[in-house]
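Late entry, written up from scratch paper. The run itself happened at the end of the previous shift, but nothing got recorded in the book at the time, so transcribing now.
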Amino acid sequence: MIFLTEPLSGPSCIRINQSAIRPRHQQEIAIQKDHKSVYDKVGHHLNEHYFIPMTATILKQYSNQLLHDLNRSYFSPLSYHDQILALKQAKKVVSIQRKIKKHHLILRVTDKGYNFYIGTEKEFDKKVQNFFQDTNAFIELKENPFNKIQDNVIHLLNQIRAKKFILQWQCNKMIPNRIKCQLAHLYFNPKTYKDGIPVRPIENTIHAPTTNISNYLDEIIRPIFDKECQNTTIIDGSSLIQALHQYMRKGLFKSTTLFCTFDIRNLYTMLPQEGALNILVEFLNVHGYTKVKGIPLETIRLLASIVLKENVFVYGKKMYQQVLGGAMGSSFTLALANIFMWKWQKELVRRQDMIGEYYGRYIDDVFMTWNKSENELKKIIENANTWHPNIKLEYKIGKSLPFLDVLLTNINSTLSTSVYHKPAAEPYVVQGIH
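Output as recorded:
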């Protein structure tokens, strides 16, 4: 079931800042942590893109001002009323924690939303086990392979550096930090907008041995995809509306025009690893690349391969290796999934282009227009469902369909658009969360 902070008929609850009632030493630790996080990101961005040295006076001034602002934010006293509210809510949180522990419940943020899901541990674990069985993408390991994985990653980087396939600074950027390195951790978010409330796997890979390689591959390859595939890429609901206005200006939008949306089930998890690597090299070749940032394509493939195949994570008290697809939570997985779909969708894009219809994709969600019979469109989509054993589609056809955050409706050849709220989404929009 779904747990909301307030009934739908009343206002949403915005939690009072609980940090204000913590002991001062805890607040000081939080300030230092926030300061380091923000300063490191800003400093590295300015250093990398604008060549501002980390020792520059302006960065020192920024650091001091940031620390001053954080101190003011944390230590500004709450009003008496807000202090009472914060204390009451803190007690309520402790009470909820006790009940969750007593009744063996779990509390999770929902997928694609900011609601909460609450259910029994047993019920949720059953959903997780169903996911493992349905995808068949993971194998349980008996021994901890962490040291071996870390050694494999470092050995590969040193090897291709010795052969001069990458530069020293590139090697340094991708090498894992032995002190901070650890296995990824898997968790699941419930898809409350889907029948039966299945789960989506998310890996926390921030300190995994392959994370730096994944980040660098994403940094150099994603811009290529964005440039070469912009005509079939939907960025957000607004960009889809703009594309449909262009479609209308061609005189193709009629009272009989149908919309079709479909999504690919578990795209990240179901990517065939070898097939995706082959398509990555093909994509770069087709668009005229023999090297990317000086790195040969075969080396790019090696780096991408180790990101996919050395993906081991902890879930509960067990360790698993992913043998199909890539980690949702690893930055390069999205770029690789997009490139795989570039190949998969070619026939659909070609057909749509031939008859002047629109085709656009947002990761694993596709939107199409259609001016022939609905049965013919169904046959095309059902045929597309057979193109690859791992890629399965769930589609809808109609004159009024939601896509992302937009509801699109064909009213006698006039396009009507409105904001779409998923039934499982929070019914309120707030300016800030405290």
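Confidence is low (pLDDT under 50) at residues 1-12, 429-434.
(Scratch paper discarded after transcription.)
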